[in-house]
Amino acid sequence: MELPSPEQTPSLDELWRSLLPLGFHRASGGYRRFAWNKADLACRAWFTAQAADRGLTVRTDRNGNQWAWWGERLPGKALAIGSHLDSVPDGGAYDGPLGVVSSFAAVDLLREAGWKPERPVAIANFADEEGARFGVACAGSRLLTGQLEPDRARALTDDSGVTLAAAMEAAGQDPDVIGRDDELLGRIGQYVELHIEQGRALVDVGRAVGVATSIWPHGRWRFEFGGEANHAGTTRLEDRRDPMLTYAYTVLAARKKAAAHGALATFGRILVEPNGTNAIPSKVSAWLDSRAPDEATLTALLAELEEAARERAGRDGASLSVVNESLTPIVEFDHALRDRLAKTLDEAPVLPTGAGHDAGILAGRIPTAMLFVRNPTGVSHSPAEHAEIADCRAGVHALARAVSELAGGSARLGAAW
Ligand code: GLV
Ligand code: MN
Ligand code: MN
Fold it and tell me: I want to staple 360 with a disulfide (CB 3.0 to 4.6 A). Which of 71, 215, 230, 377 is the partner?
């Protein structure tokens, strides 16, 4: 059995062509595929259609994650591959979709080579990985593994006040049944997620594909700065209780403290009330994303930042509340799986990442691994995100080899692959 050369992954082009228009925002050049919105539903329909074209059985689990099964009835636990199709606001084309598209293309490649799995293989499209609409990243995999309470999930709201429960219901997904699903997890033996690299390590070592080692601990915090709405043209400076000042000070403090700790801290989203040009705000809600090499550093950074913000709030006559919306501990991907994949892929380089992934959430329950495809600029969460087509093809090849190695039993493909 021979795998066609990396240049020959014909289905990859067609898969991209059909997915690229969905959720594309012409003015920004990016994608707006948010959990359960119209674009996301179009992507989910695309997933179903691609699976059907290949004769794969599609099942949607209790939490809205989609699974396309190849050989569902084969004995043994499944090898799951895949990623997600939702995006950050004006995100790039690759973050998530590259893993799903490459999974279908890898199945095509393996079939073309006449290879058959000896245990089930499932392609996953995890729901709401980015948390762009309801605030909690990896909501689908967190619910599946029991790391997100169903009641809390149902009550999450988007910026228009629509709850996750209502959004799921409108999409025909029953929100009453969400929650930990041990039956499904028990059927999956390993998960391997292919993803565009978010950073620029592979460029430096001249390789198209790498294997992940770990994910930095990271979390999201909602800072609410309260003040008093008043007239911008008539309120004396000394009479103001302006929460925007406290917010601005906190942004700068976050940057300073992150640098001091060798960590990262980003305020990338705010809501201002009443949001009028000629009104002092009554409230600023701001979301902090922070990540650090270890949990102690992350905890220390947050404590220091909250203390600084509180001190400043006192001087501004503002109030402050800080709520942790999600926290993901450090993830060490399964060492044996990582080493096996690196060896299979011609001693692929191994690298850590600061980005969160469903593979990181599943890692607490099953052995997981990730393959990264070179990103020449490192840019991600932006319309400028890019991977060269030759590297995408190399990624499909690598994933096909990984599937053959892990789900093949004696039917592994030989070195000629
Ligand atoms: C997911 O992309 C993250 O925010 O790390
Ligand atoms: Mn992302
Ligand atoms: Mn992603």
Answer: 215
